[in-house]
Records
---
Amino acid sequence: MRLSRYFLPVLKEDPKEAQIVSHRYMLRAGMIKQQSAGIYSWLPLGLRVLNRIQQIVNEEQIRAGHVPVLMPTLQSADLWRESGRYDAYGPEMLRIKDRHDREMLYGPTNEEMITDMFRAHVSSYKSLPLTLYQIQWKFRDEMRPRFGVMRGREFLMKDGYNFDLTKEDALHAYNRHMVSYLRTYERMGLTAIPMRADSGPIGGEDTHEFLVLAQTGESEVFYDARVTELKLGDRSVDYDNREEVKAVCDEFTTLYARTDETHDEGIFAEVPEEHRRVARGIEVGQIFYFGTKYSEAMGATVVSPEGKQIPVEMGSHGIGVSRLIGAIIEASHDDKGIIWPEGVTPFPVGIVNLKQGDAATDAACDALYKGLAAKGLEALYDDRDERAGAKFATMDLIGLPWRITVGPRGLANGVVEVTSRRTGLSEEMSAEAAIAKIAAIYENI
RNA sequence: CGGAGCGUAGCGCAGCCUGGUAGCGCACCUGCUUCGGGAGCAGGGGGUCGGAGGUUCGAAUCCUCUCGCUCCGACCA
């Protein structure tokens, strides 16, 4: 993408309403525009990141054997009366009436609707296990939206629901989600720690939240420092192998890690003092096992092998897709701007043309741009007629992990400059070598 | 929802107390110079001062109502 033809409205000054760094940088980097309290438009750069995150979430869900669907944002109140949550949910739920005075709501979550979908089409244990998920906009009418997309009212969320015959099967689904989530967050360059949590309005017995450590986090967290060193890495996990999946979950949940809701000073005191940590975290996902709470209330049953009608065992699982962008920025930035992990960056690399209009420099940038494209890498090429300082400042702000700088001085020696946004270190090399280097970096991402 | 604020050019702000021709910086446009870390000079465009009512010869400024937004707290993905 040529910057001269793009829509990237960066701001030089800090918008006054943005208090935390991710909100500030998202506004300054031209990623989002607030439309009303807690409701945002996504501008091209922000949309690219949002799409990248959705892509990773989709890939990991499908890898785990889960099946994508898409449900409407607007739901009928009747469905929610069946589960009893229409009255239980409170003013956080946005209620709407259509022209026929029918009561509707903008879904804050989808347990009822998915259960309705399930009961309409599944009637035998032979169809189980089944996990359906979607990535869809939700609305929760927060009393006080703040921190940009980290706590908006409208937000994009991946919500998944498992249907199983037995509790053991449902707990395997729970574990499978935990592993798939760990992999999902790692691909985004995040360390997200599963922590024992409270079930809140979803209800249920077993639940973990995934927390990204950040000073601006909304939750106080208590953990054993060794938990942050655990990595899934390249290991392949067979999602159908219960023991293997369970072993990974045990590995990641044995060390102490809890939010303030479930924190226990007594148990925490048993963690060796040098490993004990108290910090803050941003919640980027949560998994629940809740058994037959919704299936019983809504008559979602299957015929068992013994020929009996039994309510299905369920759980639900969420990833805060839009809020993840805020969390990633909170975890990865410096005083000049964002530093995107390669996995989620809007563009893999930026090209800075230091002398726009100079025939040799323009031609070199052009060749570089095409060479990268031939490797499947779409560069953001700053071809504006701006001074070097302005171009560097823009690149630093929007945080592309790699920058290739092309100027007459380097071209005279046959080199361009490749700079890492994260380390700030530069290397001079031929344009061909630069293309090869960037291509190698992104080969496995 | 309790408390505290703010709405003046795209963004950040001054002007309001003490009523009298709407300003500054950045951004934008034109020209010249400059050109490897947010350039300099000169010129220029852009506002029903959030909205409605009222007081007054006269309201951005005073009064009433209203809408929107932000911050602290409680609550929450």
Note: Chain A has a mean pLDDT of 94.
---
Amino acid sequence: MKIATWNVNSIRTRLEQVVDWLKQNPVDVLCLQETKVIDHDFPRSPFENLGYHSYISGQKAYNGVALISQQQLTDVTTGFTPILPDIEPIWDEQKRVITGVIDGVRIVNLYVPNGSAIASEKYEYKLRWLTVLKEYLRSLLLLQPSICICGDFNIALEDKDIHEKVKAENHIMASPAERQALRDVLELGFADAFRKFTTEGGHFSWWDYRAASFRRNQGWRIDHHYLTPVLYEQAKSCIIDVSPRKLTQPSDHTPVIVEI
Amino acid sequence: MKIATWNVNSIRTRLEQVVDWLKQNPVDVLCLQETKVIDHDFPRSPFENLGYHSYISGQKAYNGVALISQQQLTDVTTGFTPILPDIEPIWDEQKRVITGVIDGVRIVNLYVPNGSAIASEKYEYKLRWLTVLKEYLRSLLLLQPSICICGDFNIALEDKDIHEKVKAENHIMASPAERQALRDVLELGFADAFRKFTTEGGHFSWWDYRAASFRRNQGWRIDHHYLTPVLYEQAKSCIIDVSPRKLTQPSDHTPVIVEI
DNA sequence: GTCGGGTTAG
DNA sequence: CTAACCCGAC
């Protein structure tokens, strides 16, 4: 089973690139982030034409996640609230969470808040959001032992996941508090699929549009698949496909694909 | 003497097309409308490189007119106020008027308000703007008997200046009040140069970007040259050059050229 | 800096 | 449909 994650930075702007990629790279489930479109306007038919079902949770202009799946998914829910009925509504106002089950494996597709700048209000929101995520996953684990969380985490856990030019310590997406918050989540029993196969640094999934950072390969690895133990043992590969980032008018992120 | 008028719908976006056209079609004066740029950012040097002087009156994002001339012009003024010092400032807040004299001929380059929709506030502004224009031209005629007014009038005076698909009566740019307001202006002693040479309909200078209207030739003739009697008698040709409208990323208007 | 969406205008 | 601006995001 292949599960891909791709922050497309607007599905409407990137539609042709995503459809082309999916034709060349058939996967069981494609997890999209930053679709930036309300559900009514999500372009379902291009995916239908390729034989894929769409499960979407979008909003106007910002955020938005989708699961594009060859098989139908079961137990699809959006946001934290269906699993954590008692949380405050602010955690689901932004559309960042969608999940569904395929062949006994729960896929959790996340768009973790970026956090803007250290010590900002958005940064605090990001850290607290990750504590909500942990409770959400704890609940899901009670229902299902096999879980693949993937998406844009907006966190690079290790310095080797960041190009050399930036000192991680006080940088958003790499601050100690962010890394600790993510480690706290993973402590539930998740392991990084990419690191099962590749230990060296210099592999990135996101390059800022600014400062020709892709040309200089000054990127970050912030798009991840985290697997529960049995899935992790079964994982056969985890690959970053850099090619879509080379196209004209690319997303700033590129797809990452795990095979289990 | 050749005088061309062209609503370029942003001189910065259309610069290459305008320069190319001018190379192929040298004219004495090119009257531009909808330059959509403040004077500081107007691209003067590409025209200088071709041997043309620029006289400009622009604003941010909207409107804006310019005279591009091989010879230097004299008596250049912008807006109504230099000629009508007592009018209210609202008539010159939008940059729609520039004039200058070449070889004893006054060129008046206009971008008449579009009017948006019949009975709207903008429609009323358009009608009143045309009464101000009449007083402006009346004053200019006292100084100079030879005048060529040209530009985007946003009015089609006759039904044959409009493609068949639209009933003129209640359409903006063709309503009785707009036509009457323009006829009131022309009554000062101006005649339509184009109609000296061509009497049949189906000749247009503007095609809406929407609804593939150029492909279907569903256009309007709203860009005009109006001449005082002696100039009208001298006029040798008046031609609409459709070719720029066929390019990719064209203006919605195409140039009209009078030779006197 | 660079992008995407939304808005306003035509 | 097209262009410019504004805004928010990164």
Note: Residues 61-62, 114, 116, 154, 172, 208-210, 252 of chain A lie near DNA strand D (CB under 10 Å from a C1').
